[in-house]
Amino acid sequence: MGVLADLRPPDRPMTVLLEREEPIAVIRLNRPEALNALSNQLMSELVGALENLDDDEAVRCIVLAGDDKAFASGADIGDLSNPTHLELYFGGRIDKWDAIRSVRTPIVAAVSGYCLGGGCELAMACDLIVASETAQFGQPETNLGVLPGAGGTQRLTRAIGKSKAMDVILTGRFLSAREAEAAGLVARVVAAEAWLDEAKRVAQAIAAKSPIGVRLAKESVNQAFETNLRAGLEAERKAFHLALSSEDAQEGMKAFLEKRKPEIKGK
Ligand code: CAA
Q1: Per residue in 163-202, pLDDT tens?
Q2: Is 262 in the pocket of ligand 1 (CB under 6 A)?
Q3: Which stretches of 22-141 are assigned E, i.e. beta strand?
């Protein structure tokens, strides 16, 4: 197990652990005593880890995981109690979510157990979700007198549609893994013992491809949520031409015609 650049006060344990299995890396959220609630320290360490890995050419896909019991139970409710407006504005919480959105390396969320509030928002900020059949998804912030504040009202609605998103957010009820998969929130559901292995398998499959094609594909899919169809199609066409001019694309097509495996260089 690797150690991250040390961002924490000296007396506090790491809230995020890193396992490198190149070409993939696995980030584990590590606050089991609080069901991986997203404390300020955890969010800082998570963003630091993601940014380091995003700059590392040897890492082509990232798995973000919790443990069997929880991916993450939401924002740390202790951190959210009694903040001043100034703390909220200058506290940098929003900047951390923006930093996660800026990561270009694909991120697979590996979810087992509770995936609630900010935890569900974190999973949705990843590129796809692989879930254990034990996973439970929810945005129970209305139980606390607030609402999802890190993208939940927008991303959940885009993922599962208005009526179901209203049901989940307004009533605070949880979606089972199977219901989340049927609704389009989750890409794959697997047996309880297989969630992390399956997420790593998905990450390995992504990492085996040219990082140029993969990163441009991620960027283009995300454009579908930012633009109208015409602008999205134009962005896709430009990305396609950019990918086509890469050495990897030329090698990929040559290898297909020569009936051999391509040698991917990331160029
Ligand atoms: N923040 C801080 N601590 C949390 C936490 C959270 N979000 N979720 C759980 N914990 C802590 C509990 O306080 C408890 O600590 P102690 O052992 O010291 O008492 C420990 O984790 C275990 O939790 P429970 O005893 O409650 O475990 P359970 O199995 O009985 O219940 C649960 C599990 C249903 C997930 C329950 O813990 C729960 O409802 N948690 C809160 C979920 C929630 O409301 N999330 C939204 C947070 S707000 C948010 O995320 C805002 C946003 O959009 C950014």
Answers
A1: 999 999 999 999 999 999 999 999 999 999 999 999 999 9
A2: no
A3: 24-29, 61-65, 70-72, 107-111, 114-116, 128-132, 136-138
